């Protein structure tokens, strides 16, 4: 029987809460990824920045691009857990 551990990625690409959205966009494009776990200074997952969430705010971010910080646009840890649970149900 396969477990999550058999399929999960362990070499995570992450960003910090205060990284710019420009950095997030570049990382998503460069690594061809849609979701980036956001970690705090202790290395704990505090949220998830999704491509969908990023694109939803894209028009508002154009005028502020590079000055906005992920911590203002990230999901909460509870959202991160709901997102992960949603993938487990599929």
Structure report:
This protein has helices at residues 4-7, 21-31, 51-56, 58-61, 70-73, 77-88, and strands spanning 15-16, 35-39, 45-50. It is α+β, with helices and mostly antiparallel strands and 90 residues long. A 3-stranded mixed β-sheet has the order 1-2-3. Keywords: CBS domain. Residues 8-64 form the CBS domain. InterPro entries: CBS_dom, CBS_dom_sf, Diverse_CBS-Domain. It comes from Marinomonas maritima.
Brief synopsis:
The chain is α+β, with helices and mostly antiparallel strands and 90 residues long. Helices cover 46% and strands 14% of the residues. The chain has a single domain, classed as CBS-domain (Roll), CATH 3.10.580.
Look at the structure and name the CATH superfamily. CBS-domain
Number of strands: 3
SSE string, helices as H and strands as E: HEHEEHHHH
Radius of gyration: 14 Å
The stretches of 5 or more residues where confidence is low (pLDDT under 50) are: none
Strand composition percent = 5-15%
Shape: globular
C-alpha termini separation:
17 Å
CATH topology title: CBS-domain
Please state how the strands of the largest beta sheet are arranged side by side: 1-2-3
Helices and strands: which structural class?
Answer: alpha+beta
Give the second-level CATH assignment, the architecture: Roll
How many H/I helices?
Answer: 6
Mean pLDDT: 79
* Integer tally of domains: 1
CATH structural class: Alpha Beta
Describe how the helices and strands are arranged.
Blueprint: H1 4-7, E1 15-16, H2 21-31, E2 35-39, E3 45-50, H3 51-56, H4 58-61, H5 70-73, H6 77-88
Parallel strand pairs: 1-2
Antiparallel strand pairs: 2-3
